[in-house]
Amino acid sequence: MPPKKKETPLYQEVNSQKDWESLLEQKGLFVVDVYQEWSGPCNALSGHFRRIMIELSDKLLQFAIAKVDNTEALKDYRGKCEPCFLFYAEGMLVAFVHGANVPLIINTIKKQLDFEHKVLEGLEVRKEVQDVFIIAKYRKERQATRASKIEIRILQTEETAPQSFTVAIIKPNVVENRKVNDIFMELKEHNIHIMVEEERLLTEEEAKIFYDCKKDEAFFEDLIKFMTSGPCHVLVLTKEQIFDEVIYDWQHLMGPPNVEEAKDKAPNSLRARYGKQGIMNGLHGSENRRAAARELDFFFPTFKVPIIQGKRVQRTLAILRPDVFNEKKDEVLQTIKEAGFQIPLQKVVHLTEKQAEEFYSESNYQPFFGNLTDYMSSNPILALVLARSDAINRWQNLLGPQSLDEAMIAAPESLRAKYAFDGIPFNQLHGSDSEESAKKEICFFFPTETTLAVIKPDAYPHKVIHQSSWYWLEK
Question: How distant, in Å, are the alpha carbons of 26, 34, 74, 94, 460 from that of 68?
Answer without folding.
Answer: 19, 7, 5, 19, 18
